[in-house]
Write a structure and sequence with these properties.
The protein is built from 3 helices and 6 strands. With 139 residues, the protein is of the alpha+beta class. A 6-stranded antiparallel beta sheet has the order 1-2-3-4-5-6.
Amino acid sequence: MLPVPLAEAERRWYDTAGWPDWVEGLDEVVAVEPGWPEVGASVIWVSGPAGRGRVTERAVEYEPGGGQTVEVHDDSITGRQSVAFAPAAGGVEVRLRLEYRIRAGSPITPLVDRLFVRRSMTASLRQTLERFAARAGRS
């Protein structure tokens, strides 16, 4: 739960200028299309050297005050990431979910996903939410 109004949390979430401060693995936002966060607009960002490389997020659903779903593409995965905002006592609850598939498959891909990739993705989402909450709660 973040101790800020829903509208403030939402404004900060979609403000790509702040992403390098709280999105886990993001090094730099490269491009933001006009209209972001509305349907059809995209954001392109790059990670640090050990990260995901070039990542494209294209909005496929957007509900002001409710959340957004983006199609996510990078060199290793493709999927959908959703953020949802819900009013809570004293602030707002933010939920983040990623459904993905690994692009290059082999017979051992499901095992590698279960043992390594899924844990890494889950930790990354958790860290992103924790960093976002810490920064949103400061001001």
